[in-house]
User: Fold these one by one.
Assistant:
Number 1:
Amino acid sequence: MKVVKLGIENFRGIRRASLCFDGHTLLVGTNNVGKSTICEALDLVLGPDRLNRFPPIDEHDFYNGIYLFPSLEEGLPPTPIRLRIEAVLVGLSVEVSNRCGGNSEFWHLLEKRVLAAGEIAAANPPDVVPCLRIETIGLYDIEEDEFVARTYFSHSPDAPLGELTAVPKTIKRQFGFLYLRTLRTGSRALSLERGSLLDIILRAKGVRHSLWQKTISRLQSLDIESDATEIAPVLRSVEKRLSRYVALESPGNATKLHVSELTREHLRKTLTFFMALSADQAHVPFAHAGTGTINTLVLALLSLIADLKSDVIFAMEEPEIAVPPHTQRRIAEYLLTKTTQAFVTSHSPFVIEKFEPSQTLLLARQDAGTVTSRKVSDATGLKDNDYRRFAKSGLSECMLSRGVIVVEGVTELHAMPVIARRMEEQDPSLQPLDISGVAFFDADGESNVPKFGKFFKTLGLRTFAFYDLLPKGNRKPEVLQALADTYEINTEHPYKGFEGLLAAEVPASRLWSFLLDLKISDESGNVMVPELQPSDAAVRSLAMQALGSNKGAGWAARLLNDCEYEELPGATKDFLAGIYKLFPRPVEAEEESQPDDAWLDDPI
């Protein structure tokens, strides 16, 4: 089974969202855009155990924490505000189809919608397939003074008018949904609490009643007093004193120590998995292992669960946390090949590169809590090969930013952030670009600048370009128009190469100091730096030769680091100054003028 659509109303930080999915899905976006909330929503509507909690939801599960609408008439009670999450499932298993046939509907794969009641004649394969709509509704019960939530079939033809049929937990278990919160799942993955990975494995294998009953019987048979003889006299004294007030008619000793109250729930919370991490170590609780080891254990359990279940839908938050790159790739590869459907949130290029552009949803938050999504593949103009090639070299970081500065090559990529840092140091009123969410991107050539600008702009990002004068002739009119349409700030500096810009605009004295430093450190290579300083024109020519011969060595950034602020090239400072104006520093709230103890003088 797979989720093809998810609707969210008034849940946590999302007031409204309508999201469509095509199989495996990578959710990317800025912090607090709603990635984790979407995973939590899937858990609430699909997870079999989430609603077992008491209460299943609370105040903070409602948008802005508002769960009551004040009455417009005095004396009348407020009206509960509901949260609602609806999922549409296709690829129904035989068992689900048999048990829920009366509640099924039809989903149009191309139009991405459920057919209405009068469209039954249009329910023809392969464009239309059976589907199941289920929804979880949560609200505050004023009379009972508690929060309630329950899952229903959205299409309930057999229910009384105005009501919906509840979805049994046994049906939810058939969906095979698992939600893995990386930071939180690891701490309880191998406990026996309800919903833990080990609990899921035991349930899948049918290990239930015998486990608990045998464990309880063994604990009951433990004779604690025989192992701690000094306790027995104390217990007998307590028993003797109790007999003065309470009739103790049991033969033998009327008091006894037990390990616990011996309930299944106590055992679930106390039993845990121990492991020996090395040859010289005794077995310790698995939670004492390193975070990376715990996350790798989670991966091992996932693979076991997938082997036990025919249908598995995973939602997994940031699998890259505390895991090395090769393990990140293995986790992503496993999710994509061994599960029916996976929902993943990630900021890691090693995870992002494993998902196709058509599988990657970029989330955005609009006004009033509305969350929207867009496939990266819809950002036309970028081929899949380009996407995969650049994913690890800055593309994924830029996709998560607010603005992107596109430059032609690696020299600019190293040099421009240095100039930005120097400008921020010079003028504390500037908001640092990284805090503003502005990233630099190396387009790897002049010809790539238009297409990457189009890619980023289509994703809804602010775009800025800084590129060289064309070596031979002018750019074609269509290219000039594409650059103008794509970039908010579109700067062609008047030099043939960034090295030419530095050689022309950095003072000759600074360039000569840079060249001497290369000569003294024996790094100048084929650049013949003379003993005595030549003319300014010769110095600039040598500097351009040196910078051009070692583009990947970071020499441009090294030169700029040594410059005084006034010596930095004006063309780059002017370009960056325009971007800083678009991302001003937030206005800080004014501090209260009264002293901290002024409240002491206020009347009570």
Number 2:
Amino acid sequence: MPSSRLPLGAAPRLSLIALSILSLLAPLAARAQTAPAAQDAPTPAADAPQKKLLDEVVVTGERKKTFAPTTVRVGAFRDQDPLDVPLTNNVMPRDLLDAQGAQGLFDALKNAAGVTRSQVSGSTYDNISIRGILVENRGNYRLNGSLPVVNLIDIPLEDKEQVEVLKGASSMYYGMVPPSGIVNFVTKRAGPKPVTSLTTTFNDHGGMKAHVDIGRRFGEDDSMGVRFNAATSKEETGIDRYKGDRGMVSLAYDWRVSAAANLKVDLEHYRKNVSEQAAIQLPTAVGGVITLPRVPDNKTNLAADWARYDAEATNALVRGDFALNDNWVVSLETGRAKTARDRVYTTFRNYNNDTGAGTLNISVLKGQAYTNTNHRAEAIGRFDTAGLSHELTFGASYNRRESAGWASGAATAPQNLYAPVDVAPINPTLTQAGYPSEIRDRGVYVFDRVAIGDQWQVLAGLRKTDYRSLATNPSTPVTVYKADKVTPNFSVMWKPLKDVSVYGSVLRGLEETGTAPLNTSNAGQVLPPAVNKQAELGVKARLGAVLVQTALFQIDRPLATTINNVYQVGGETRYRGLEFSASGEIGRDFAVVASALVMDAEITRVGTANAAELGKTPENTPKNTLSLFGEYRLPMVPGLSLNAGVYHVGKRAVNNANQAWIDAYEVLSLGARYETTILGKAVNLQANLDNATDKNYWSTTGNSLLGVGAPRTLRVTAKVDF
């Protein structure tokens, strides 16, 4: 439920729009500044800080380096202590991302239990699953807890302060999303200390990157702050026939308009143009069994270097918070995210497992574009009644997701899995293949956090959803799906000690059941909405400087599967698991991040057309995952740190019929960093070695595809603070 300490905002489109919104908000800010204070302020919730709902601007310029999260900034739990969140949450703070030299989404999330790659290998962007459930690329990724950004291009980490995952059903706050979890990106903001840094990174494959980060506060009493980030890179990963470039620029602005009004604006634009690694299609089943080929060398790319993935994205978000008095705050948000791409997508199929000879299917896709528009209005207040302390939230949200039509053409070429050859450029005739679609997801919600004495909290809420999706195709009737439903959420938390929480939660949510992938006959179709259910029982504790979490969960959700090459809803799946995580500092010199998941997932209901899937494990769902990363800060050499990490993912079924399994794998990472001062400037020198043993392994499956893990990569980084 919402914290008593509210964040300060978010961001729109371009600077002109930002200035327009500033002028519109100025009268409200002035009015809020003169709002009378309550005469008899009620006692706040038992665990809430004794202060006004609206805080000063939260700055992050001076921060203690730590792997332990202190706040969660996602959804209804913005700026809460993780101990007060009655769901499993994992936070990857900036220092952890820096220590690991994280370059992308999967690099950050590999520290969270149950996270795996899905379908694609990650050479262009990271498609991931959590607890075996696909993280929907247009609804489950959020900027500053609000704007749904489109994860069809690498989301930059250079301008992010932390990355966090709120696992499970999140429909109460976010509307129509699957219960895999919400991935939230928190942007850097200007702090009290000026920031000017230049970072350069080189890898052993010839890749290189430069990144500049500048932050300043200004104005009367430093009431305004600006954080600017920009990066450019030459992309080389060690994969054959892979090359390209990437760039990003972002601006985060905040303004403490008055003691009663705050404003935040975030703008970011990023692009990536690289060769896309080919996906490998599953062989045909014989007698209900698929025999997989041996894993090719991890540098193998069956596609040509001209098979480009050319994408760009622009995200804009504005948030304003206005204190009406000491106990009530109104928050307004608006934002827009747009991603466009042209793609030459290659799959390798119809091959001989022994010789490797097969066929490339080359699809040229032009003009794909996805736009998310998001608005939210919310009122949060505190009051006492009948001896109980309430923190009540009323809200309304509106999200519109639009997809433009696109043109495509196809061609084939011979190729060999074990001895790839160059493929000559093609220029197929393009015809209309994808057609415009629109999704509208509106909702109103109310939830209350009730403190009963000093140790108990009850959290209860309802959301009413009004959903409509529309797909246009000239060859078939217009497809429309609608949903109008009320879903409840209920949690109970007991805090026997200040740093220990025990909770139980029951949640219901609506979700879209998926979007048909490109290799199905109904590619791009959004499937009908359905209800998912979740129950979770957990314990959280802060042991010194280490946050420990463990939880038992069960999720029941609709099953999306491919039947006769048509992607459709075909039953129901149940996910049961036990999850554990620990992160923080052990003593003065050692820091650790650990996670583990043991899970039993089963297809519990099917239709007549997919009866063979009953009782099977959902595709790409491991029975166990484990990650362990530690850093030792050598006391005998001030500034020097050594680190290592091991990451395990259990075996996974290649499809819902369990006709084959990819093997479990473990990868090792090593690193070192040294902080010193040269000519009066702070300098950080760092080296990271990923996949240190240069292991060949299947890193991903799902959607009838296979992907290979990345080769061993050494990155050397130098950062100078001016």
Number 3:
Amino acid sequence: MLNKYPLWKNLLVIFVILLAALYALPNIYGEDPAVQISADRQATVDASTLDLVRETLKSEDISPKSVALEQEQVLVRLSSDKEQLQAREALNKRLGEHYIVALNLAPATPGWLKSIGAEPMKLGLDLRGGVHFLMEIDMNEAMRKILDGMKDTIRSSLREERIRYTNVSVEDDAINVELRSDEDFQQAEAYLDGRYQGYQMFADAETNTVRMQMTEQKLAETRDYAVSQNITIMRNRVNELGVAEPVIQRQGANRIVVELPGVQDTARAKEILGATATLEFRLVDTENDVRDAMNGRVPFGSQLLPSRDGGPQLLKEDVILTGDHIVNAGVGYDEYNRPQVNIELDGVGGDKMSLATKDNVGKPMATVFMEYESTGERDAEGNLQFNKKAEVVSVATIQSRLGSSFRITGVGPQEAQNLSLLLRAGALIAPIQIVEERTVGPSLGQQNIDAGTQAIIWGLVLVLLFMVLYYRKFGIVADIALATNIILIIGVMSMIPGATLTLPGMAGIVLTVGMAVDANVLIFERIREEIRAKRSPQQAIHHGYDSALSTIADANITTLIAAIILFAVGNGPVKGFAITLAIGIITSMFTAIVGTRAIVNSVWGGKRLSKLSI
């Protein structure tokens, strides 16, 4: 028949709407005030911690909605903000300094919705409240670490080629290689020339020195790499510590913006982010006596570092590899049920570890934990200055030649848990310092939500009234499609893992409310034109939808292209606006063209009509 959908098409429309409604449903349940408990690297969260939390809450006459151990952290859901603050204070006193007690907001989504992956929309900092940090990277340290890695690579290569050298050192943005003889100089010059991409070679025959200088392009790439790696590692650390929906992005040449929605305590948020630390793996110097080093006679090429176990350790200065090559780490147990940390490296890290350990089987290897503390001062170029503190966290014997997978033994259960957490989250390629922090209170966030919601409601109500008054029964059809469109937008936003609703995003929804009826206005006006051209009502409906389709597609596709460009080149608020606009355009085309026609066909299709209420 002229205006009838086949059954499968009607069922498809119903299925899409019901699916979107199902995933939009969690947004009506709201959030519970919550306290989130995690541990630093010197403590762990387990069943005993859970019991201690319950005991503390009971002693304070606090009745939580629930207390659960989830992913190495305890989440306490409470009934009010007052109980939330009271619980935070009591737990802080009881648990001690090695536990992080942070305020949070936990979604109150029922379990049956969680089981199908339905979660509420993620709200941005301007809507949910939280903390905002602006962090600055120590680029000097980043360059030093990368050049130190290249220095070690050149050393190893020269030893393999049996080219003798007296010293390989880093100076500014270059590596100086001092050769022992004219013959060694000539061999090194021939070997190093053009071998390392991004480095220019300058040879000085008078001093038997080869200088490997970074090119300008390599310098720029290295700085970009330092920022991108720190962003990745910072995101991993925040995720490991359980902060939901963080926003972590680059700002300028050497700064990172970190936003933690729902975290209400700035001081605790700093602790959640953790110390700006890196990891290094080095060989223990077994050829020299550590007691001589403790008396001030540290041998050349070695370094005396404090150990977490108490006594200092004498280590080789050469770094086997740093923590940025670790892709995964987890706790396991050996055949004697002793804890160990199982580590997986990337390809480059595996090659470095294999090369370093093939001749050192049976020798001890140390894991060094390094922290950077800002002095608050800047150098002549305006870069922040840091003091470095290094500590040996574990020493293990190399049992065999290692590759991309190996294990760290000799650690206790608690140390294994904390060490694996740090390794899994990753080590920063360079230290960072918080140079700006802001707190957006949840009350301000709620005001933004209320204002945006009112704008959407008023815009929706006015459009609904206009459509009913101007297009009568067909206007009611358009209104149903418009309401369905809002549900579809919320459902899609809830389903997309990385989508976050911000205040500009709400503005995009308001704009979509007005744009969504444009397609229906075009269709209904074409139907009116067909009726004025003396076509029958059924023919007018059919030609009205068909002739308006190309115009609707052209108008919406051009707007969609603009939204995609905004998302691609924009940042922060612009992206939030672009994503809701793009989703709104796609869903409005579905509801206005497919959805309304399904209703029109069901109500008027196939019937003998003398006139239409349009």
